[in-house]
Amino acid sequence: MKWLKDLFDSQKKHFEKGGKFERFYPLYEANRTLFFIPGHTAPSRPHVRDGLDLKRLMSFVIIALLPHFFFGVYNAGYFANLNSGLPLDLVSVMQRGFVIVLPLVIVSYGVGLFWEGLFSVIRKHAISEGFLVTGLLYPLILPPTLPLWQAAVGITFGVIIGKEVFGGTGKNLVNPALTARAFVFFAYPVTMSGDSVWIASKAGATHVADAVSGATALAVSAAAAGPAPVEQSLAKAGFTLKTLFWGMYPGCIGETSTFLCIIGALFLCLTGIASYRIIVGGIIGVLAMGLFLNFIAQPSSSPYMSLNPLYHLVMGGVAFGITYMATDPVTGPGMNRSKWIYGFFIGVLTVIIRIFNPAYPEGAMLAILFMNMFAPLFDYIEIKVKLKKRIPNV
Q1: DSSP 148-199
Q2: Which of 3, 165, 293, 335 has a CB 3.0–4.6 Å from the CB of 305, allowing a cystine?
Q3: How far is residue 335's CA from residue 319's CA, in Å, rounded to a whole number?
Q4: What value does the CA radius of gyration of the chain take, rounded to a whole number of Å?
Q5: Residue 56 pLDDT class (50, 70, 90 cuts)
Q6: 165 φ, ψ (degrees, to nearest 5)
Q7: pTM across the whole model
């Protein structure tokens, strides 16, 4: 790799101050650090206390997300072929899945990196490594049937309003990927919500509908009525606890498999990238709130209140959100006790939003974005408490 390093070094003078391409130094630096570790430290969060630089740290997150990506490709392709009456062998399913999913990933990275590069050139700072993760997270939390132009508008909003208006990486208050999804959800609710599951179909095949008749697991739970337990309604719709755990059902591209979320959480915690306190706190919050509602549920209450709390963990995007977005080192708290409280309230709010807001059965996204706003306050309170416990100097 010496020849490559020599090539970058020989061209550096053209991009440094006074060079003819001075304005494009962020683009030069971004490409150089893909291959070589930079020799400077981060002046703001997230701080990496390791031999790895921030770009390599983000690469570990991408490694953890790759199983979700390939599973999402298979899942989207399988149900698209099933709905269209096409072959269900592995090659056919994966080919169809890539046709569905890959354009969303390309749009996410292409449009997002354009805005990242533009702001870097204008502000004359390095291109954010954080977008390497945001660019992959965003399409994984989208339905496979979302129009590409809406995906482009969403990532534009997420990068500009969710991050750049605050000053860029390390200064944003909310998670950019979730901000982008929230914008698309509220701006284009027809394509982001509804009672029908998301299954892409092939024009000219046996079936051509964009969504088959049937409700999502969250919609089934929210609409449950009568004396029968919600678990029975879910089972009749094909959403058993086992099916929800493994993730073989239509939904957002990368968030259906709780099993893969567990694997990803273990990997990120063992490598020191994610905080187990936030993840475990979130799980405790979901289970505690679910059990509490089970306890206070009355015969006249919504059957949803009596749902086994384990279903809340495997339905929708709560496991994916707690694992990959609640643990964001920028928008989450930095103090240990604050992380427990932060994760716990994300879990609690997720269940509350799901059960008591019939217009929005999924609560993980709003819960994480809401708690992003309180993360600095949690750190502030914990620091104040610790300072008060110090023995004063005499």
Answers
A1: HHHHHHHHHHHHHTTTGGGTSTTT-SS-HHHHHHHHHHHH-HHHH-SSS---
A2: 293
A3: 22
A4: 23
A5: low
A6: -65, -20
A7: 0.83
Q: pLDDT digits over 18-27, tens only?
A: 676 666 666 6
The Cα angle at residue 284 between residues 280 and 286, in degrees rounded to 5: 120
pLDDT of residue 164: 86
d(Cα 363, Cα 347) in Å, to the nearest integer? 9
Q: Which residues contact 59 (CB under 8 A, 6 or more apart)?
A: 132
Give the residue from 307, 302, 310 showing the smallest Cα distance to 244: 310
> Rounded to whole angstroms, what are the CA distances from 167 to 116, 119, 128, 163, 281?
12, 10, 11, 7, 30
Question: 265 by DSSP, 3-state: which?
Answer: helix
Structure tokens at 261: 């979320």
> What's the pLDDT score for residue 335?
93
Eight-class DSSP state of 299: T
